């Protein structure tokens, strides 16, 4: 079922009811486009997700990126009436504290009276575990940023390999994660290896964005923690 949206305004808060799939591609772009238009009126948004039937990693990345953009502009995004499968996705990806779900629209609306933390305030990241994530997709990068920060890593994201090389020269990197849009470019990956010889280079599979969010995300976190040796100290 394709994504359908219904929106209305309550006390200067835009409420958007979502029905269908929030997934990589047309649906995610549609949600982003509609919210870009709606947030011209208000920077405070409630997403009502009761009738969302599926959420993949890329779709979750879109929601996280929208949240980050709104908070950067002194706005915020709340989610409510979350189906059990989405709550489980947020739980296993450690994002319950970022996208805190409310039971009802009323509770979500009332929550705007509280000050919301910025994404940078949400996590306490360790500078000893520095990770750079590269990909052409901003949604994927947004998802990787919050996913890995929730595991205690200091995370930088960029669409450009040259930025990663500059970061590598400034301070040691532990891991370089290349999304499908970058990892397929062998010459770029080789230059990254040369710029950060002590860092581990990890390539994401081509279907990472379209995979089930409750599987792909936790699997990546487990792999990263293993590479960093964090599981040996937990």
Characterization of this structure:
The chain folds into 2 domains: 4-113, Transcription Regulator spoIIAA, CATH 3.30.750.24; 123-233, Response regulator (Rossmann fold), CATH 3.40.50.2300. It is 43% helix and 25% strand. With 234 residues, the protein is α/β, with parallel strands linked by helices. The termini are far apart. Helix 3 (84-92) runs parallel beside helix 10. The longest helix is centred in the N-terminal third of the chain and has 16 residues, at 57-72. The chain contains 10 helices and 9 strands.
Helix content: 40-55%
**If you compute it from the alpha carbons, what radius of gyration comes out, rounded to the nearest whole angstrom?**
18 Å
Task: Catalogue the unreliable spans.
Answer: none
Number of DSSP E strands: 9
Supply the number of helical segments.
Answer: 10
- Compute the separation of the termini in Å: 42 Å
Shape: elongated
Give the number of domains: 2
Please report the first level of CATH classification, the CATH class of the largest domain.
Alpha Beta
What characterizes the major β-sheet? 5 strands, mixed
Within CATH, the superfamily of the largest domain carries the name: Response regulator
Series of secondary-structure elements, N-terminal to C-terminal: EEHEHEHEHHEHEHEHHEH
């Amino acid at each position: 079922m394709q994504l359908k949206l219904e929106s209305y305004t309550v006390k200067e808060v835009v409420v958007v009811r979502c029905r269908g799939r929030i997934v990589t591609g047309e649906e995610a772009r549609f949600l982003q486009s509609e919210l870009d238009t709606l947030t011209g009126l208000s920077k405070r948004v409630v997403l009502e997700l009761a009738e969302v039937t599926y959420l993949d990693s890329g779709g979750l990345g879109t929601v996280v990126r929208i949240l980050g953009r709104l908070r950067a502009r002194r706005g915020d995004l709340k989610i409510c009436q979350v189906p059990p499968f989405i709550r489980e996705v947020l739980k296993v990806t450690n994002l319950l504290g970022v996208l805190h779900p409310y039971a009802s629209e009323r509770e979500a609306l009332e929550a705007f009276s509280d000050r919301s933390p910025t994404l940078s305030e949400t996590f306490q990241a360790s500078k000893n575990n520095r990770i750079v994530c590269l990909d052409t997709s901003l949604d994927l990068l947004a998802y990787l940023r919050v996913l890995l920060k929730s595991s205690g890593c200091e995370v930088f994201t960029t669409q450009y390999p040259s930025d990663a090389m500059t970061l590598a020269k400034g301070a040691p990197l532990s891991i370089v994660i290349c999304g499908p849009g970058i990892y397929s470019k062998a010459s770029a990956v080789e230059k990254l290896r040369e710029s950060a010889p002590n860092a581990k280079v990890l390539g994401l599979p081509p279907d990472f964005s379209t995979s089930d969010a409750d599987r792909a995300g936790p699997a990546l976190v487990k792999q990263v923690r293993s590479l960093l040796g964090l599981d040996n100290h937990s």
